[in-house]
Amino acid sequence: MIENKISQRAKNIKPSSTLAVNKKAAELVAAGEKIINLSVGEPDFDTPDFIKQAAIRALNEGFTKYTDSSGIKQLRQAICDKFKKDNNLDYQVEQIIVSCGAKHSLFNVLLAICDQDDEIIVPAPYWVSYPEMIKLAGGKCVVCKYKEDFKMDIEHLKSIITRKTKAIILNSPSNPTGIVYSEKELIEIAEIACKYGIIVISDEVYEKLVYGGLKHISIASLGEEIKKLTIVVNGVSKTYAMTGWRIGYLAAEMPVAKAIANIQSQTTSNPTSFAQKAALTAITADQSFIKPMIEEFEKRRNFIINNLSPKIHYCKPDGAFYVLLKIGNMTSGQLAQKLLEEEKLATVPGDDFGAEGFVRISFATSMTNLEETVKRLNNFAERNV
Ligand SMILES: Cc1ncc(COP(=O)(O)O)c(C=O)c1O
């Protein structure tokens, strides 16, 4: 029997619940149900045309072969310039590794730093893929509890650090809560990381999607000591509506960057050649073209938080495009199921994010859908709270 041959490593991995809900919602829509799909984790905007044209040009010019395994020099230089301009971070080109999406960058990082049973701290509520990637890399996921404001409980963080703690994954702005850590909070986290010599894997993919005049701060920019301990991960998926292009990148101290470059060279090799050219065009363009998308997300976020019933308990997002919410006293699974059956809303159960009782909705959908969504959620709250 072939199923007996599947590795324990593979058997230990749960499928991504966000992708599973997406699939279920698509099936119901195909069967004629009027479902509003709130499970998506990508901007509902098309990739801007001038970025597509750059890829088409690259194809027409025959840029279709292997590239430098860590990414083309021009793109890595552009990423260095971006780090300097946006985050006040100085890196050499050799410290930048371009991969097939930030997800791939994160997995490369974990493969490069995890020995068997090394502990990686993941503050809840967390992105669903972190615990599974840690397991795949042989590490152990240790969850840090959250406070009422959905930010990490620093006292709990201090109490779970052991000799085996290798790293903490910081995700600001966060998926699934949209919380954004302030400079003061980041300094506190940086001090703990420096005190115990813990690596900070800083997932900054939602960097540009911040609202209410907030500015994203990279923890790596808070001083030389924390910069040396930080691996910054970012990508083009969310900022430029380029999820399908699969380009992400990271910046790390030389020994880590070298280890990751080796892993990538023996596994996937380079990220897609012409997608790199498209990413280069996106990153080096005048960035004002992303403003309308950010403004639209902010408008939608404001609409939701201004219109949700007080009976709904939710985390006000300062960034990203999600709202984590809770209605009544159900488990996440029950709530998601009832919302799908009774209100035709496809949401993602929060238990996979380490937030039992909650579901996540995405506002990467039209205002028309969101107006209807809020109406249905409020009706549901009326009946269930
Ligand atoms: C927190 C977080 N990190 C990383 C990623 C991966 O992004 P990419 O498309 O670059 O792989 C996602 C995508 O949903 C995400 O939500």
Rg from alpha-carbon coordinates? 21 Å
Query: Per CATH, what is the topology of the largest domain?
Result: Aspartate Aminotransferase, domain 2
- Which word captures the global form? globular
User: Which small-molecule ligands are present, each listed once?
Assistant: pyridoxal-5'-phosphate
What labels would you give this structure?
single chain; 385 residues; alpha/beta; Aspartate Aminotransferase, domain 1; Aspartate Aminotransferase, domain 2; 4-stranded antiparallel β-sheet; binds pyridoxal-5'-phosphate
Could you provide a short overview of the structure?
Helix content is 43%, strand content 14%.
Topology:
Blueprint: H1 8-11, H2 17-30, E1 36-37, H3 49-60, H4 73-87, E2 96-99, H5 102-113, E3 119-123, H6 129-136, E4 140-144, H7 154-160, E5 165-171, H8 183-196, E6 199-203, H9 224-229, E7 230-235, E8 248-251, H10 254-266, H11 273-284, H12 291-307, E9 313-314, E10 322-326, H13 332-343, E11 345-346, E12 348-349, E13 359-362, H14 367-384
Parallel strand pairs: 1-11, 3-4, 3-5, 5-6, 6-7
Antiparallel strand pairs: 2-8, 7-8, 9-10, 10-13, 12-13
Helix pairs in contact: 3-11, 4-11, 5-6, 5-10, 12-14
Bound molecules: pyridoxal-5'-phosphate (PLP).
Pyridoxal-5'-phosphate (PLP) is lined by residues 41, 101-103, 127, 171, 175, 203, 205, 235, 237, 243, 248.
Describe the structure.
The protein has 385 residues and is an alpha/beta fold. It folds into 2 domains: 2-46 and 290-384, Aspartate Aminotransferase, domain 1 (Alpha-Beta Complex), CATH 3.90.1150; 49-287, Aspartate Aminotransferase, domain 2 (3-Layer(aba) Sandwich), CATH 3.40.640.10. Helices cover 43% and strands 14% of the residues. The chain is built from 14 helices and 13 strands. The strands form 3 sheets. The chain has a 7-stranded mixed beta sheet with strand order 2-8-7-6-5-3-4, with helices on both faces. Helix 8 (183-196) links the parallel strand 5 and strand 6 (199-203). The longest helix has 18 residues, at 367-384. The chain starts with 7 loop residues before the first helix and ends with a helix. It binds pyridoxal-5'-phosphate. Pyridoxal-5'-phosphate (PLP) is lined by residues 41, 101-103, 127, 171, 175, 203, 205, 235, 237, 243, 248.
